[in-house]
Every structure is written in C-alpha cells, then in structure tokens.
C-alpha cells in the first residue's frame, strides 16, 4: 500500500501529464513541495493582547461563489470577534485568487504554506482543486476546509468537507422515481472524472430500487452548440422521458435552453435537477428560469432563523447582493468553527510550547479540536462526522413561473415529508402537488400497489347503503351498496393495481344494533388496513384512525308523515302585521277618495250610509281592478301578435274567427275589459291616488298568489301532535341532537319497517310524529318508502360517512382527493340516484311568508301619494273659498254704487 507521500507524488505526475504547460515549471513546483514537506515550521506572532493565527483562503474571485464566500468570511470573522472580544487569538485571513485554474490554485497553496505559514486553508468548490488540496493537507499536516460537494476519500484525515455531500440526494431521487412508478431514467452529467463517478453512483442508487439507467449522457463543459443539440436530439428519440441533470449551473443553463427549443420541456417529459445547479437558482437569468418551467430540484436546505436574517441583512447592506446561497452560509459556519478550535488549542497549550514541540503534535491538536466542534450555525447544526458535515435535510422545489414552490423535503431518516417536525403525520407522507413540464399536475406521489385487508360490517341497516354477501363459487366476500360503490369508484380513479380482501366482522349483533366502534378497533390494532361501510365520522373515532373526507351529506334530518293542509292556510302567505296594515290602507284609501270626490261626484253623495258603503266598496274593489289591468296588458300584447278576432255565433256554442283592424280591436278590448267605475272619478288627484294604489295592490296580490301556491304545493313538515313523540335509531348517538322542546319524548327503533309502521300510526295511535336520523339513512328510507313521507334537514351536527384507514396511512389523503373529484364531476350524485331511486332528495324547501318589513316601501309610496293629494286638495279648497269670498265682497260694493247712482239719477230727473 502506498504511503500518503507516494500517493501525492503519483497524483502530481498524472496532473503533469495532463497539463499543457512546460514541464520545467512543474518540476520546480515538485521540488518546492518536497522541500516544503520537511521545512514547513510554525511561526507565532508575538502580541501583547492576542495571538494572530494565519489562515489561507483560496477562491476563484471571478466567480459569484468566490465573491460571496469571501464576503461572508469577512463579515463572519468581524461579527465573531465582536461578540467574543475576550478571545486570546485572532484569525488573520490571507486571500488568494485561484483564477479558476487548478494549477494556479496549487501554486498559491504552496506559497501560503511556505511564505505565510498558514495553519489552515479554506478551499473553493472546485472538485479538481479539492483532490490536490487533500493530498497537500496530509503532507503539510494542516486542516483543509473544502467547499467541494464531491465525496472525498477517508484516506485523507486532514481534508474536512464543509459542504453537503452531493451524493446524499441520489437516494432521494431513487425514492422519488420509485414512488412515481418510473422504471427507467436517463442521467446527464459532465464529461470529466467527477461526472463519470457521479453517474456511476447514481446508477447504483436507483438500481437498489429496481430502476435502471437506460443511458448516461456525458457532455463536456466546453462542448459547442452543435454537439449539445446533437446529444439532445438523440435523447429526445429515446423512449425514456425522465431525465436527471447533474451538472454545473453554466452547463445546465445551456442544456435547458436548448432542450426547450427542441420541445423537450413539453408535456410528457420529467426533469429532476440536483443541488449542483439548484443551489445557484437565485443567480440564473430570466431566460433560463423560463426554460426550467416544471422541473423539480433538490436543494441544500438552510433553516430560517433570526441570526440568518440578521446576517443576510448586514451582507446585503455592505455588499449590495440580493441573496446568499448555501456556500456562503457554510463558509460562515466553517470559519466560526475554526476560530473556536484555534482558541481552544491555545487554551490547552501555550504558544511557546507550540513553537518548540513540533508541527506534528500542534497540527494534530488543531485537527482534533475542529472535529470536536459542535454548535448551531446559520446552516443548522455544524458538526463533523467522518471528516464531513452531516446532511440530514434537502429541500425539494418546483420551478413555476418566475419563482419556485417548495413541495416538500427529503430526509435521510424519514423519506419524503411536507413539513419538518411532523414525521408521523399522514399528511406528510407525500409531497405537495407538482406541476411538471407542460402544465401537467401530479397531486401526490404514486403509492405502492398492494393488497388491502378491509374489515366491513356483517349487517347493515339498509341494503341500499351497504350490503355484504358471500360468493360461494369463488369463496369470496362481495360488497355492494352506495358506500361500496363510492369506495371502489375512488380507487378506480387512482389507477392503482390494488386488490381488496373484504372481511366481515361478526360480533354476534343483530341488524340495527351494529357496534361500529368494533370496526375502528380492528383497524387501530393493525389487524386491518381499512374499514368501510356506513361508518359515521366522529371526533372520538378520529383519535384512533384516519378518516377520509365525508362522501355523504352532513347532519341530521327529520322524517315525518305529510300533514293535511289547514283550513286557514289562505291566511298564511301574509304576516299578521301585513294583513293589518293592508286593511288600514284600504280604509285610508276610501277616506281619501271620499274627501276628494264627495263635493263633485254624485256616486259619493247621498245618505250617510250610502256614502260609507260606496266608498268602502270602491276601495276594496281595487283588488279586482288590479288584476283586470294586468289582464288588459296581457291581451293587448296578444293583439299585437295575432290578427284574428273571435266571436261567438248568437244562439250557438260556435266561435268563429274574423279579421278586424288592430286599432279597432284594441279599442274594443279596452272597452270590454276595463271596468268603468274607477274611470268615473272626476278629480285628477283621485285618479293619481288610485293609480299608485293599484300598483301596490298588484304587487301584493301577485306575491300573495305565488306564496299561497308554494304553501299548497309543499307542505311544511311539522310535529303536529302536542305529545312531541320523536323516534331515533338504536345505533344512533343523541349527543348531536339539540333544540328539543320541553316535554319531548324519545323512542328508539331498530329498522326502517318500524319507522314506517309507527309514523303511519302517529303519536295519537301509539306511534311517533317524526324520526330524527342521519341524512344518508333518511335518503335510504325514502327510497324504500317514497310516498307519504318527507324530509327536512336540521343542523349539520354530524360529519357524515367516511372510510377509515390506519393512522399514518397514505391512502386516506389520496382517497379524500378522489372523493372531492367524484363530487365535482357528478359521480356521487349519479350513485345516489342509482341507489336511492330518485333525483337528489334534499330537504323540503320552506316557504317564506311575506312581512311588512319587506314591503313597507309600497305603503310608503302610497301613503305619500295620498298625503300629497289631500294636501293639494286642501290648498285648492282654501283658494276656492277665498276667491268666492273676495268675489262676493267685490260684487256687493259694485251693487251699492250702482244703486246709489240710479238713485241720484232718478232724483235729478225728477
């Protein structure tokens, strides 16, 4: 077995063979490294206040990652020592720019070790640089903190990986492929050593789930546009449409843009992108994001916290950036851990001993301190395990529009969950809805096909709801009825290959006395996977099983025998206050018309009794006038449509048509239809008042007619007997029934036959007036006894029927979604019609009587018109009296003057 030095020299030789630079330069570097292995000595700096510890940082400062990591390290050290100003040590960072070149990064590392005497090095995310730094760290015996996510060998104890291992997500990808039922997929990686290694590791991970990688596409980062399109064209012709993309962000952007142009981001394709690209999603431009619509990605999870928010705000303020990615957070936590380790090292050993004891003991001590560090950093718990930071959670996101939507998490111990901290909740067993390319939505992951053991009640109160019988030919249990059909329809909509084994429970109960809690106990104990039947959802049962959404109506209903109509039903359309106000307004109208017409209209004159009779008769006869006016309008419209006039032949029953000009027919019709009595009013004020009142009467009579028709058609269900005897089923819990009147008596009944018998007899003959029951049972009863009985729905105090599954079962949320779909597409309604032999039997509609509050505007209008008319009449009357008095006075003076003149003239003549 080779020593670390021999392995290092061997890797340098391989690298020199691949390099295009002059061999003399590489030879000089090799000599420098060899001398360095024996000559590197620590150098402490004396300071009266604290000891400075040099640490090297090698980053590609031309990249966004390099700039972000450098700024995060700077802020982290400043904030760390601001809080821990009592520390005896201070880390002094020596930055070096690798320029993105592996050879230059190695040269700068050698310079840091030889010239600066650094005690640790923080490296970039480059996989090639990480390999050489790992060997260099072993030779120099200093910790190398690498941001490379590629897995490292355990043969390099000084190489500490502070980035999350990118191979952890491969198990999550394999689990996702298995859950969705994918049998094969295509892996796209970079054409280099790391890409080929990752393709192999991914193939092994999905292979454990019996999923095959049909093709490994390796594309060089320097490939031309023609080569990329040629490779994608080849992929598009393959039968497999599921792609896993594991490349750098730059190559991924290039691939996705071309894939969209080739139609590989349309319906039918599935794209899963690893954290190697998704960790940099926030720096991708808008065009690339548009090409990624529908892709699903695994991304390193950074938990939100107050410290993270504070750090991000400070970073944005000082450097003007928008978002910090995971690499900046990891670098922040790593340099903080290094500062803690250096301080602990100094506390255990004084600086003078470190200078004279030798580098081996010193460096081993620093490494050991780093491995013992454990604290809550910005990225979560910072702790090394096997020389790398442990990865527990990955975020799964779905790219939609200009942003992203989190659909769940992947954890190494709890698989897929929707929310962290709730691993035992059934709602977390699958991801949220995913929108794939082309806008295709997947509500949840596909569930594994299996056989389900389902317990069912041996007896049911209604065969229409649920029925169990044995198939002797196949020796199997068959279920039927409304509940069974809903269950089978919901599973059929899933498209899953699931076999059911229905097992009836026999607890020595009779029909109508089933203890459904026994079914729940069987599921809770784990003996069965589910329980179906006419099982009501209750709060207590929900503590032991997971129910689906209800597939029946909620609440109770009342069954009662249809009652006979009351002899006073014609009074019910209007409320008592409306009857009273209407009568008062009729009398008021009569009074107003008499005031307006008494002086000039002979119809309103005569004896006092005759005046009162005529006035009252006129007011109440407006009820007839209103309808005749309505008939006039209707017939007038008919005259505009038809040109035929009908006339009865005198002395016969024969009616013959003949043609009459429309104007003449209209005039004749007006003459025939309109009663002349109200036209005999002589005052215009009277006519104005009557016209307004006729409108009020027309509205009142029309509303009355409609309400009365409704009351005669739909009989409200009431408990007619004063004894208030109400029935209920024996398996029914009365805790939800409320609002019983005082003195109400209850009687339990086991079967529908008993319901019908006692309802038909009524309470006066030893039966009951009504029966309270859950709505599904009421519908089943009315299907068997469709005539003579009605239903009215009470409060929704029950939760309806549901299917019970074991706690944590993924089937419960899946079947709930399918029940919602069956309700929307009308399947549930069709099944109700099938089993209950009728269209939807909802509650009997109640008729709302007319109240004064609703029609008070009509009376206000009529009252105002009467007041205005009387007021104008009084003004006219006062004016007339004044004018008459004036005339009389003026006439008297004139006569006196004439007589005086005549007298004087006569005297003169004499």
UniProtKB/TrEMBL annotation:
Residue intervals passing through the bilayer: 578-596, 616-636, 688-714, 858-877, 883-902
Location of the protein in the cell: Membrane
Signal peptide (UniProt feature, chain positions): 1-42
One matching Pfam family: Lig_chan-Glu_bd
Keyword field: Glycoprotein, Ion channel, Ion transport, Ligand-gated ion channel, Membrane, Receptor, Signal, Transmembrane, Transmembrane helix, Transport
UniProt-listed SMART domains: PBPe
Keyword Transmembrane helix listed: yes
Membrane topology: Multi-pass membrane protein
Single GO MF descriptor: ligand-gated monoatomic ion channel activity
Highest taxon listed in the record's lineage: Eukaryota
Chain ranges of the Ionotropic glutamate receptor C-terminal domain: 453-838
GO CC terms: membrane
Family according to the record: Belongs to the glutamate-gated ion channel (TC 1.A.10.1) family.
Function description: Glutamate-gated receptor that probably acts as non-selective cation channel.
Protein name: Glutamate receptor
Organism: Centaurea solstitialis
């Amino acid at each position: 077995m080779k020593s670390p030095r021999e392995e290092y020299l061997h890797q340098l030789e391989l690298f020199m063979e691949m390099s295009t630079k002059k061999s003399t330069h590489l030879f000089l570097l090799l000599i420098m490294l060899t001398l360095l292995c024996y000559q590197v000595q620590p150098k402490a700096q004396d300071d009266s206040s604290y000891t400075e510890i040099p640490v090297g940082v090698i980053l590609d400062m031309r990249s966004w990652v390099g700039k972000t990591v450098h700024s995060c390290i700077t802020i982290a050290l400043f904030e760390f020592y601001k809080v821990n100003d009592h520390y005896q040590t201070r880390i002094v960072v020596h930055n070096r720019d690798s320029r993105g070149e592996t050879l230059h990064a190695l040269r700068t590392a050698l310079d840091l070790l030889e010239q600066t005497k650094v005690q640790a090095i923080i490296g970039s995310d480059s996989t090639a640089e990480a390999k050489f730094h790992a060997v260099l760290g072993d030779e120099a015996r200093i910790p190398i903190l690498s941001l490379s996510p590629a897995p490292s060998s355990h043969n390099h104890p000084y190489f500490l990986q502070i980035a999350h291992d990118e191979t952890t997500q491969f198990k999550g990808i394999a689990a996702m492929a298995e859950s969705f039922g994918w049998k094969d997929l295509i892996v796209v990686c970079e054409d280099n050593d790391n890409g080929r290694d990752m393709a192999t590791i991914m193939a092994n991970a999905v292979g454990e789930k019996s999923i095959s990688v049909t093709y490994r596409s390796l594309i060089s980062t320097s490939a031309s546009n023609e080569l990329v399109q040629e490779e994608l064209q080849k992929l598009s012709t393959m039968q497999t449409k599921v792609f896993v993309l594991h490349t750098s962000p730059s190559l991924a952007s290039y691939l996705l843009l071309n894939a969209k142009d080739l139609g590989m981001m349309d319906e039918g394709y599935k794209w899963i992108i690893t954290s190697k690209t998704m960790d940099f999603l926030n720096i991708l431009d808008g065009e690339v994001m548009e090409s990624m619509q529908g892709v699903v990605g695994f991304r390193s999870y950074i938990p939100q916290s107050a410290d993270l928010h504070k750090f991000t705000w400070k970073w944005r303020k000082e450097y003007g950036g928008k978002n910090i990615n995971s690499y900046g957070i990891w670098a922040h936590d790593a340099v903080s851990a290094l500062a803690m380790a250096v301080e602990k090292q100094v506390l255990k050993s004084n600086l003078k001993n470190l200078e004279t004891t030798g580098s081996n003991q010193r460096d081993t001590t620093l490494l050991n301190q780093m491995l013992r560090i454990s604290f809550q950093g910005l990225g979560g718990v910072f702790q090394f395990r096997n020389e790398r930071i442990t990865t527990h959670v990955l975020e799964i996101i779905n790219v939609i529009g200009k942003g992203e939507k989190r659909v769940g998490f992947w954890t190494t111990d709890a698989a897929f969950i929707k929310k962290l901290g709730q691993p035992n909740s059934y709602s977390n067993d699958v991801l949220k809805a995913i929108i794939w390319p082309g806008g295709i939505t997947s509500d949840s992951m596909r569930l594994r096909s299996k056989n389900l053991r389902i317990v069912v009640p041996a007896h049911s109160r209604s065969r229409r709801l649920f029925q169990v019988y044995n198939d002797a030919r196949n020796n199997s249990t068959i279920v039927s009825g409304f509940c069974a059909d809903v269950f089978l329809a919901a599973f059929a909509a899933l498209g899953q290959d699931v076999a059911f084994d229905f097992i009836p429970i026999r607890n020595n109960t009779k029909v109508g006395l089933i203890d459904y809690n026994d079914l729940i106990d069987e599921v809770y104990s784990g003996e069965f996977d589910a329980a179906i039947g006419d099982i009501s959802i209750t709060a207590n049962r929900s503590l032991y099983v997971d129910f689906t959404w209800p597939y029946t109506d909620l609440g109770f209903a009342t069954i009662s025998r249809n009652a006979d109509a009351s002899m006073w039903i014609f009074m019910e359309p209007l409320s008592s206050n409306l009857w009273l106000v209407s009568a008062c307004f009729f009398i008021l109208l009569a009074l107003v018309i008499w005031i307006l017409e008494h002086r000039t209209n002979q119809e309103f004159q005569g004896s006092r009794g005759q005046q009162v009779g005529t006035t009252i008769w006129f007011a109440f006869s407006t009820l007839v006038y209103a309808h005749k006016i309505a008939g006039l309008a209707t017939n007038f419209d008919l005259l505009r449509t038809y040109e035929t006039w009908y006339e009865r032949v005198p002395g016969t029953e024969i009616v013959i048509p003949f043609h009459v000009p429309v104007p003449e027919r209209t005039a004749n019709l007006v003459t025939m239809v309109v009663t002349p009595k109200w036209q005999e009013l002589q005052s215009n004020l009277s006519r104005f008042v009557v016209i307004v009142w006729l409108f009020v009467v027309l509205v009142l009579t029309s509303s009355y007619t409609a309400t009365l028709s409704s009351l005669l058609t739909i009989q409200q269900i009431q408990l007619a007997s004063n004894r208030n005897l109400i029935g209920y089923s024996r398996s029914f819990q009365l805790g939800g029934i409320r609002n019983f009147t005082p003195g109400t008596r209850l009687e339990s009944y086991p079967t529908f036959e008993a319901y019908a018998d006692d309802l038909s007899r009524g309470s006066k003959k030893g039966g009951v007036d009504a029966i309270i029951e859950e709505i599904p049972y009421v519908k089943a009863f009315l299907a068997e006894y469709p005539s003579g009985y009605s239903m009215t729905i009470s409060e929704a105090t029950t939760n309806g029927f549901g299917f019970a599954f074991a706690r944590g079962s993924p089937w419960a949320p899946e079947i709930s979604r399918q029940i919602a779909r069956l309700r929307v597409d009308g399947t549930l309604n069709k099944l109700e019609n099938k089993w209950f032999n009728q269209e939807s039997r909802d509650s009997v509609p109640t008729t709302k009587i007319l109240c004064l509050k609703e029609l008070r505007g009509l009376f206000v209008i009529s009252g105002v018109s009467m007041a205005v008319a009387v007021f104008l009449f009084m003004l006219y009357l006062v004016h007339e009296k004044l004018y008459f008095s004036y005339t009389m006075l003026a006439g008297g003076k004139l006569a006196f003057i004439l007589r005086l003149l005549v007298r004087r003239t006569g005297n003169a003549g004499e």
